[in-house]
Hints:
α4 (76-89) runs antiparallel to α5 and α6 packs antiparallel against α7.
Amino acid sequence: xxxxxxxxxxxxxxxxxxxxxxxxxxxxxxxxxxxxxxxxxxxxxxxxxxxxxxxxxxxxxxxxxxxxxxxxxxxxxxxxxxxxxxxxxxxxxxxxxxxxxxxxxxxxxxxxxxxxxxxxxxxxxxxxxxxxxxxxxxxxxxxxxxxxxxxxxxxxxxxxxxxxxxxxxxxxxxxxxxxxxxxxxxxxxxxxxxxxxxxxxxxxxxxxxxxxxxxxxxxxxxxxxxxxxxxxxxxxxxxxxxxxxxxxxxxxxxxxxxxxxxxxxxxxxxxxxxxxxxxxxxxxxxxxxxxxxxxxxxxxxxxxxxxxx
Length: 309
């Protein structure tokens, strides 16, 4: 026994030293991985994080960082596995739940995403971003009331969140609350004046309220910010149509077609405007093209004209 006892002590000290070395080496791999991730070398970063995990399988941060890198490479399934392991090792880490929710959102697992965002919120009730993203998942599941509640919580925690106002506007539109939606889009625009989508959607809401002049102003601003957006030209054309500015409408439909040559609705609506202006031949050509592109009701218009109605 006098011989064995020192041997056991020596072995114990050796294992401890080896484990300490592994931890040190694992941390070095993590640092290397972070440097590579910063440079956009996500594949190299993943290799380094994997080395760290091999050296220290209970290194929660290594799984977490590898999950982030995998998301950058669109490997959301692999990222979920890594975030899950990080959560298993550190179950009180709110950000791991949040990011796993993001990956599930990308995979359209909206119910799973909501569960993860809820866990993140439980662990960190001041997380405006988690409320916002949970609202996004609820929006996808058509729980518009629930989405609005989450966006409102996000706004309460972060009143400068233009995205939360914008998304709440979208949810309000889904519930036909166009006045409320306009208010939210306006706030989003106040916070981010170059958000073309906010102008565009505010224009849509104004059209729903028959404010075609206001809608035209918003579509025009959206076009100024994104001049290659065919849909903005098309929608502005519809608004002009409703104000009987048929010439202006035709110009916008034509621009939409120039930007998107297979835009069946633009051909169809331009045909209607031309017919209203007695350009029968031009109308027939547009109806024909709209029908060719899949707008079946265009053929009804052709038949009606040919019958002299």
